[in-house]
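User: Quick one: structure for sequence A, then sequence B.

Assistant: Sequence A:
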Amino acid sequence: MSNITTSKLKQTFRATCLLLHIISGLVQSALYPHVSQSVQERMVQKWSVRLLAILCIRLRLSGTVPEAKDQPIMLVANHVSWLDVYSLNSVCPARFVAKSEIRNWPLFGWFSRNVGTLFIERAKRRDTARINQDIGNALTLGDRVSVFPEGTTGDGTKLQHFHASLLQPAVSVEAILYPVAIRYHDASGEVSKAAVYVNVSLLDSLRQILKQPWIDVELIFSDPIDSRGKNRRELARSTEQAIANALSLPIPHKAPGISSYPPTEQL
């Protein structure tokens, strides 16, 4: 982690701004279900952009962000941090598939519920069919949906095996998949450890982030992949390869004897 840190006064100021912003988000999220899809997307994007600004998360964008198409759109990304959701939403608002535990997060849990997050019971195999039906319905209605096929957050230095189960709805509705590679760097230019959300509470994660003068997040959009004529495993390997190439990381190897689903964690 970078040795460069912000002053206590600045950390307190940023924390205060963050709290006020979260409260404003809760108010907006209460209105969210009652406005049009286009207004919803603008609300989510604007709120996410402001959140990144308060946390001094500097966004760098590569590739082409998906535009509205006749075919449904699914974003497929590697997973490093809870910041991934808001980084993606700042440029391409979408509905996310998240572990059910997030419902109980202070403030963020209520916010996530109100903005249409799709929650999965990760410990229940039979919940796969239900969540895939929900994803398919959302795609059919014209919502973009984002998934993290690794099923858990990593430290940003390697990829984990991409599980195929949550990609089945893309096959069913013939969606276009956009692989998105995500990486974070600190003020010294090294891979950011403060952004990583592994074995840490949300509050401790926020403390780590607030100490940093800034964190750079890079979103790399690779060429889209048409799901027509492909199965979910082919899509998992294709998106995995695209993201590995974008990050210059090796393809992960699945350990023998380990079930491909459910993922151990989904944020």
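Sequence B:
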Amino acid sequence: MNRPVKRVLLTNDDGVEANGLKILERIASAIAEEIWVVAPERDQSGTAHSITLHEPIRVRQLEERRFAVGGTPSDAVIMACHHLMKDNLPELVMSGVNRGANIADAVAYSGTIGAATTALIMGIPAMALSQGFRSGDPVHWETAERYGPELVEALLSAPDRDHVCFNINFPALAPGQVTGTRVTGQGRGSIRGVNLVERTDTRGNPYFWFSFRHDYSDLDQPGTDVDALRQGAVAVSPLRLERDHDGLRQLLAQRLER
């Protein structure tokens, strides 16, 4: 059977053994003829676009076309495209399926999205997929698996797909409860602070754990990824690499340029 993509690269930020990566492989098998997995050796959540510059990167082959990389999600994409797959580059990079939604301002910290945008920098179309869940409830991986293949295939023919990363978030619902698909903007304002926990190791030296405090309760901006998930829909957000502000740039130019 001919599929729309010849060769696809899969990665994530939850680690090469993560359940979500197994779901991503099933999604990819519906649209790609050849699947490569190059993913971090361990959990790299929160690493955003970071690459490792001050220590060596090691790669371990697990099986045919499946590798574990001792680094960040972006390291894994670079390793794949500049070494493991350099003679036959992927036509598409898919990152995920992340355990937990990547929405609102958390997008800036997401290693899942960082891997996808790193692919975009190298000129390869990319998508990031995440499965929302509620704390204490089982993760509805079957929702991403049910809706992922059709949605990914539809986005393959989207206008300007070579210049955006599609950020896809599935709601924390069973497949039969999903209300549809919404094309959204990125929400903002969910990060309300940082938790810092200080502890002491066995030698008496202090160390610290960081974590974010999120609150989505008063985010009611219509048309955003937060709003779509709240309505039980799959959220699809096209994200650009460019972070400039055209309107403000033009205003400042009028005021400051001489």
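The chain has a mean pLDDT of 93. Residues 196 and 210 are 5 Å apart (CA to CA).

User: Thanks, that's what I needed.
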